[in-house]
Amino acid sequence: MSTKMNAIKNAIMNGKTVLGIELGSTRIKAVLIGEDNAPIASGSHDWENQYINNIWTYSLEDAWAGVQESYRKMAEDVKEKYGVTIQTIGAIGVSAMMHGYMVFNKEGELLVPFRTWRNTITEKASEELTKLFNYHIPQRWSIAHLYQAILNGEEHVADICFQTTLEGYIHWKLTGQKVIGIGEASGMFPIDINTNNYNEHMMEQFDELIASKNFSWKLGDIFPRVLLAGENAGALTEEGAKLLDVTGQLKAGIPFCPPEGDAGTGMVATNSIAKRTGNVSAGTSVFAMIVLEKELSKVYEEIDLVTTPVGNLVAMVHCNNCTSDLNAWVGLFKEFAEAMDIKVDMNKLFGTLYNKALAGDSDCGGLLAYNYFSGEHITHFEEGRPLFVRTPESKFNLANFMRVHLFTSLGALKTGLDILLKEEGVQLDEILGHGGLFKTKDVGQKIMAAAIDVPVSVMETAGEGGAWGIALLAAYMLNKENDQPLEVYLAQKVFAGKGGTKIYPEPKDTEGFNVFIKRYTKGLAIERAAVDNLK
C-alpha cells in the first residue's frame, strides 16, 4: 500500500475523516473526505419525487432508504479501497434541498406528507406575507407553506409542535437536536443579519396575523434554533447511529455541524461565500447567488434574499429554464447525423456545436429564441413555449443559431441580475460557474461573462457538489483555528493551489449581449402570444 493510501487508512481508523450527506432532488449522496479535504470515498442512491394528491413529495421511507444505502455504499467503498471498516468519523454534516414544509406533532409524527420546494400552491400566502413584511416571501419558503395551510383551514395546523426542512428533519433524527444552519433558516423565514436569527419584528407580525386562530403555539415555539457555520450542532445518538449504519459498526458520539441547504453548500463548494463574489449554477434550471455588502434599497419580487452559512446577506436570482431547449436542439442534430449514418459521440457533438457559437455575430445576427419549457416568474410567464424566431434579414447560420440558444439560456437570469448590477449598483469582482452549461471548456464561461460583464471562473473541483460542500462545513467546525472566518479557512485549507480557469468579458461580446437582451425583452410579446394561443 502506498504512503498516501496508508495515511488515508490511518485517518479512517483514527476518526480523522469527515462525512457529508446531501439529499438532492434526484440523488442522495454520501461523501467521505480526508485530512486534506479531498474526497476519499462516496456512495449514492437515486430517488424521484412523486406527485400525489396535487402535491410534489418524497416519502420518509424513501429518504431513509436512500440515506442508508448511500452510507452503506460509501462504507463498502472504504472497505474495498483501504481494507478497513468505519467505526467512527471526525464530524458529519447533512444537507438537502431548501425550503418546503415538514410539520410534526408532539409525538414526533409527520402530520401531512412532506411538501417540497417544487409546489406552487402557496401563491395567496406568498402575496399576503410579502405585503405584511414588506419583504419578498417566495412561494417555496417554509413560512409561505405554513400560512397557506392556515388560509386553507387545514386541521393539522393546530397540532404542530415542530416545523423544519428536509435536512433539519434528518439531522434531528440522527442527533435529537432541533436546529438549522442560518443559510437554510433564511429559506424558512426572513433573517435579521444583525442578530443572526429570525427577524423578531416579522415573527411578532406573523403571530398577530394568526392570533384569532387561537393555536397553542407561536412561531418561535415551533421553528428550529438557528446556528452559524462552525458551531456545534449536537452529536450522533445511539438511535441515530443505528439509523445511519444498519450494520451497527458506527459508534455514537460523532459531532455534527449545523444542517445546511443546497444553496449554502453550493456556495461553499464553489468558494463563493465572500462579499463581492457569487456563483451561478446552470443546468436544467439556473440560479445566481451574489453575496451583498449591504441591504437592497427596496423589495423586488424577482430577487430572493437568503444568507451564506455564516449569515452574510445573499441575493438569489432563480430561473426555471436554462439548457433544456438547447439540449433538445443538440438532440435534433444527433438525429440528423444518425440519419446520415454518422456515429455520434455526444461530448464531441456538444463541444463542436458550443464552440461553433463563438464564431457567430456578437448579437447572434438578429436571431431570437425563448427557452421556456415551463413558466418563468422573472418575466411573468405562468407557462412556457420554446420558440425560435427570425426576420427575413436575420443572419441565419449554424454559429448564430447556437449562439442565440446559449444567449437565451441566460436571458431570464440576465433580466434579474441587471436589477442588482444596474439598478442597485451591486459590486461584483468575480462569479464562479458550475453545472452542465460550463462543461464545454471556455464556451459557457465566455457567454456568461458577456451576459453580466464580470469575470467568470470555473474550478476543477466545481463538479464535487453539495455533499462535498456540507463535508467542508463539518471539517471547518472540527478544524478551524480559534475564530478563523469560513472564507479564510476555505481559501487557505481547501482551495489554495487548486486549478481552474478565469475568463474576462470581451467588450464586443458584452455589447452584443446587450443588443440581444433588448430584442429579447421586446419580443416577450411573441412568447405571450404563443402561451395564449398554443394550447
Description:
With 535 residues, the protein is of the alpha+beta class. Among the domains are: 99-164 and 189-222, Nucleotidyltransferase, domain 5; 324-408 and 508-533, no CATH class. The protein is built from 19 helices and 24 strands. The strands form 8 sheets. Strands 16-17-15-14-22-23-24 form a 7-stranded mixed sheet, with helices on both faces. Strands 3-2-1-6-13 form a 5-stranded mixed sheet. Helix 3 crosses helix 4 (142-151), helix 10 (262-269) crosses helix 16 (465-479) and helix 12 packs across helix 13 (398-408). The protein is globular and about 70 Å long. The mean pLDDT is 94.
Overall strand count: 24
- Going by helix content, strand content and strand pairing, the class is alpha+beta
**Residues in β-strands, percent:** 15-25%
SS element count, helices: 19
Helix content: 25-40%
Mean model confidence by pLDDT: 94
| General shape | globular
Distance between the termini: 64 Å
The spatial strand order of the largest sheet comes to 16-17-15-14-22-23-24
* Computed CA radius of gyration, to the nearest angstrom: 24 Å
Q: Segments where pLDDT lies below 50 for 5+ residues?
A: none
Largest sheet: 7 strands, mixed
InterPro entries: ATPase_NBD, FGGY_C, FGGY_Carb_Kinase, FGGY_N
Enzyme class: transferase
Pfam families: FGGY_C, FGGY_N
Keywords: Kinase, Transferase
Give keywords.
single chain
Quick structural gist:
The chain is an alpha+beta fold. It is built from 19 helices and 24 strands.
